[in-house]
Automatic annotation (TrEMBL):
Pfam families, per database record: NUDIX
Taxonomic lineage: Bacteria, Pseudomonadati, Pseudomonadota, Alphaproteobacteria, Rhodobacterales
Sequence ranges of Polar residues compositional bias: 1-11
Key words, A-Z: Hydrolase, Magnesium, Manganese, Metal-binding
InterPro entries in the record: CoAse (IPR045121), NUDIX_hydrolase-like_dom_sf (IPR015797), NUDIX_hydrolase_dom (IPR000086)
UniProt protein name: CoA pyrophosphatase
Top-level taxon in the UniProt lineage: Bacteria
Domain Nudix hydrolase span(s) in chain numbering: 26-168
Cofactors (names): Mg(2+); Mn(2+)
Annotated region described as Disordered, given as residue ranges: 1-20
Length: 191
């Protein structure tokens, strides 16, 4: 909870330079749910289906764009988590949000931090989610588990955070958001 009161600013896929960042007006609002099991602290993540047009096979936090029926980014994150993995919003205790993350795909993605209470058996949405898994709290919140890698994208080098865990390659916007959380927690623990 103390990490939510931290003062880190918004993060961006453009933090490492390279391609110019899009203007604020071009960004579409989205919400992602960083849902930690209240009993053991493990973070819920998904592996997107390999057949998807956008971000196939990537590791992601449940979530997506804000639809017209959503009150805000938190509502979008809860709705999407219910659709993608069958997480009942009644089991979710929303703790708060972190500053939006600007993605290369044109979203202002707001991370919604939450606890999941009681037992939960994920049900992956067919065609969208290939797998649902969890990662230990200690891995997610340790800044030492993150490092920078890069590749050529659209003719320019793009650098990004990665935080591999077992067979899972957590990178890009998901790793950047989790790295921001790890930095906030680390700063609060050392204060």
């Amino acid at each position: 909870m103390r990490a939510l009161s931290g003062t880190t600013g918004p993060s961006s896929d453009f933090d490492f330079g390279g391609a110019p960042a899009p203007g604020e007006a071009a960004l579409r609002p989205a919400g992602v749910l960083a849902a930690f099991d209240a009993a053991d602290g493990r973070l819920l993540l998904t592996k997107r289906a390999s057949s998807l047009r956008h971000h196939p096979g990537q590791i992601a936090l449940p979530g997506g764009k804000v639809d017209p029926g959503d009150a805000d980014e938190t509502a979008a994150a809860l709705r999407e988590a219910h659709e993608e993995v069958g997480l009942d919003p009644a089991r979710v205790e929303v703790l708060g949000t972190m500053p939006p993350h600007r993605t290369v795909t044109g979203f202002a993605m707001t991370p919604v931090l939450a606890l999941v209470h009681g037992p939960f058996t994920p049900v992956p949405e067919a065609g969208e989610v290939e797998e649902v898994f969890t990662v230990p709290f200690a891995h997610v919140t340790d800044p030492a588990n993150y490092h920078v890698e890069g590749r050529i994208w659209r003719g320019a080098r793009r650098d990004y955070y990665v935080a591999p865990w077992g067979p899972y390659y957590i990178w890009g916007a998901t790793a950047r958001v989790l790295h921001s959380l790890a930095i906030r927690i680390s700063a609060r623990l050392s204060a």
